[in-house]
């Protein structure tokens, strides 16, 4: 399964994450399919995304994270410029994704996803 296939089957956008809540649709942003599928291609070693602002890069990365949590669990390292940015991303984007998507909700360990650390969330 590729990341784009996983996203269409399992990713649900809640009202906090999207002005159009509901199931993820690759038809909405077809240009993200290539980068998402490259992420799940084991022969790809480096993926560079050169997009304009607000074009869906973060959502593509969240889909890749959701794919990893559900399909290939293990350690994942995401690096942000500051601890504040990590806390904001975890609270506003990652935690809502874990709660909104049933395939990810079942991976949550108790109340771990409500913290700013993802230890124990997957």
Question: How would you portray this structure in words?
Answer:
This protein has five helices and two strands; from the N terminus they run αββαααα. With 122 residues, the chain is mainly alpha-helical. It has one domain. Strands 1-2 form a two-stranded antiparallel ribbon. A hairpin with an 8-residue loop joins strand 1 and strand 2. The protein is globular. The two termini are 19 Å apart. About 6% of the residues have low confidence.
Question: What can be said about this structure in brief?
Answer:
The chain has 122 residues and is mainly alpha-helical. Helix content is 43%, strand content 3%. The model is unreliable at 110-116 (pLDDT under 50).
Report the count of strand segments: 2
Category from helices, strands and their pairing: mainly alpha
Determine the fraction of residues in helical runs and give it as a percent range: 40-55%
Estimate the strand proportion. Answer: under 5%
Give the domain tally.
1
| Rg, nearest Å | 14 Å
Q: Please mark out the parts with pLDDT under 50 across 5 or more consecutive residues, or reply none.
A: 110-116
């Amino acid at each position: 399964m590729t990341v784009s296939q996983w996203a269409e089957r399992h990713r649900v956008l809640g009202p906090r994450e999207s002005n159009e809540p509901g199931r993820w649709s690759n038809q909405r942003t077809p240009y993200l399919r290539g980068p998402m599928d490259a992420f799940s291609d084991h022969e790809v070693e480096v993926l560079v995304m050169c997009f304009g602002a607000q074009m869906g890069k973060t959502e593509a990365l969240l889909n890749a994270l959701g794919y990893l949590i559900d399909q290939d669990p293990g350690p994942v390292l995401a690096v942000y410029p500051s601890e504040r940015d990590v806390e904001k991303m975890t609270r506003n984007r990652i935690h809502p994704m874990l709660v909104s998507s049933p395939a990810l909700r079942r991976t949550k360990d108790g109340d771990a996803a409500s913290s700013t650390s993802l230890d124990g969330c997957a």
